[in-house]
Amino acid sequence: MTVTDSTTGAARPGTRPPRADRSNGQWKVDGPAPLNGNETWKQEDDGLNVRERIEQVYSHEGFDSIPTQDLSGRFRWWGLYTQRRPGIDGGRTAQLSDDELSDRYFMLRVRSDGQALTPERLRVLGGISTDFARDTADITDRQNLQYHWVGIEDVPEIWRRLEAVGLQTTEACGDTPRGFLGSPVAGVAADEIIDPTPLIARITEKYLGDLDLSNLPRKFKTAITGHPSLDVVHEINDISLVGVVHPELGPGYDLWVGGGLSTSPRLAERIGVFVSEEEAVDVWHGVISIFRDYGYRRLRNKARLKFLLAEWGPAKFREVLETEYLGHPLPDGPPPAPATGPGDHVGVHLQKDGNYYVGATPTVGRISGTLLTRLGDLVESYGASAVRLTAHQKLVVLDVPADRVEDFVADLEGLGLTARPSPFRRTTMACTGIEYCKLAIVETKQTATDAIAQLETRLADLVDDGSLDAPILLNVNGCPNSCARIQTADIGLKGQLVTIDGEQVPGFQVHLGGGLASHDRDEAGLGRTVRGLKVTADDLPDYVERVVRSYVSGRVDGETFAQWSHRADEGALQ
């Protein structure tokens, strides 16, 4: 697979594999001897083992009792990162050590793995936030929930409360099988191809916390959906199973491997096989085992599955999967059909049982513990069943009775959640940013929130007269690592410092015209960068208004923003 260079238009590899003439630390090729410090400490003591020390030692003796290798390394295996110390500006991010950047508090990530969050679970999540995390809570674009300001003394009690309702932080971070993306409307959507809920449950119950899979080269991201909207961003995960119907074998999954963004973006590729529901657990285990055994470990910036796939290609990957890990061939399979609608599920939608699911939008994923508790009470009071999180920092309420939908939508608005958002609130995402993240260079959440508010006013005329007839995706990221998927947005903003009149101020490099397969886009593609096109944080609303108006006035009939931005001359994009 190749992608197009955004400046020259020439084809180039999506990622460049490491050199073949030196050891890459592949266990099945080079042996398991560690080639760097990170691999050494992972072998010395598995990250999963740190939980006992947290419960028995650190939570009693306090933050100062935690040794560096546990604090900056193994804690991640249980969803814990030290958060950024307040008051450190973005210009110092790359200059300071992790210890200098770190506060004495933690971000704690809770997995949802596509599960339904019942009213009881919502209240537990809300109570943890208000009791231990200063009322913080963010929905991430991987269907996780993140808290901040967590003290080490409180972590065992947080685990106790989570696990009492079937939730966990196990391997939410670290070189592990990270949280699973699952269709938010699994099991209820009228047009569903296959319900992935039992499959995700079988994999997580069998393999989360498995010591055979807890020392991977780096993180491993999974997405599984059976919905025809393609609602789990399958092109940018290490492995995705996407619902299809085989003409002879019936419903099952199409296998995609090797996607990922960050500083070396690469879109996943189809392996070309049909995966039955019965064999899907073994196929997932085969793919992650290939990554464990053949993934590059010498350099961490080359240690994702996408680099191995770039070297092997899908044909060799399939051969190794079938011969070394499954022991038999898989049937050829069809690709997914084009997406049937938006994958964020915002709005009111009929379920197959006559009830409705309601997709609602917070602002850039930011909520609170108080809101979670009130949402749990609201869901229960209406006789709805549960909430699922989405891959777009949204939430979906399941099983709302048909005769109570409008009242429910109105009460969601009272919580600050809207099922009928403006185009800008609906499609804007933002990562954690400099407020808490040690890698960030600029602020994101409030910057995006302020931009939404201004754009709702500034571009109201285009929305009202129908000129802006499709939402434009605006993704705001605080650093180059693309946690908010900047390369796959209509307008992706990569945080950096911008020099204005000799002074460095927070700003962004602009990516234009990226996107994943959707109802208005047949194939995924990475955004275009225009040399020198940067915008300050203060000027962000001005820039977005300007480029959107250029699009509306310069497009041809039926042309999407992505299509226009790839063909437009650079002057129109400034």
**Unreliable sequence segments:** 1-13
Count of discrete alpha- or pi-helical segments spanning 4 or more residues = 18
The whole-number mean of residue pLDDT values reads 95
**Which sheet architecture does the biggest sheet show?**
5 strands, antiparallel
Strand residue percentage: 15-25%
Helix proportion range: 25-40%
Q: What overall form do the CA principal axes indicate?
A: globular
Radius of gyration: 23 Å
Q: What structural category arises from helix and sheet content?
A: alpha+beta
How many angstroms does the end-to-end distance come to?
30 Å
Q: Please report the total strand number as a whole number.
A: 21
Strand order, biggest sheet?
3-4-6-5-14
Domain Nitrite/Sulfite reductase ferredoxin-like: 104-165, 349-413
Pfam family, one: NIR_SIR_ferr
EC number: 1.8.7.1
Domain Nitrite/sulphite reductase 4Fe-4S: 173-329, 425-552
Characteristic terms for this protein:
18 helices, five-stranded antiparallel sheet, 574 residues, 21 strands, alpha+beta, 31% helix, disordered N terminus
Account of the protein in words:
- This protein has 574 residues and is an alpha+beta fold.
- Helices cover 31% and strands 21% of the residues.
- It contains 18 helices and 21 strands.
- The chain has helices at 27-30, 37-44, 50-61, 68-72, 98-101, 119-132, 155-164, 197-207, 280-294, 305-326, 369-381, 405-414, 423-427, 445-458, 460-464, 540-554, 561-567, 570-573; strands spanning 2-4, 11-13, 80-84, 102-110, 136-139, 145-150, 177-182, 220-225, 239-246, 250-257, 269-275, 347-350, 356-360, 366-368, 386-389, 395-400, 428-430, 474-477, 491-500, 503-512, 528-536.
- The longest helix has 22 residues, at 305-326.
- It is globular, with a radius of gyration of 23 Å.
- Keywords: 4Fe-4S, Heme, Iron, Iron-sulfur, Metal-binding, Oxidoreductase, Thioether bond.
- Residues 173-329, 425-552 form the Nitrite/sulphite reductase 4Fe-4S domain.
- Catalyzes the reduction of sulfite to sulfide, a step in the biosynthesis of sulfur-containing amino acids and cofactors.
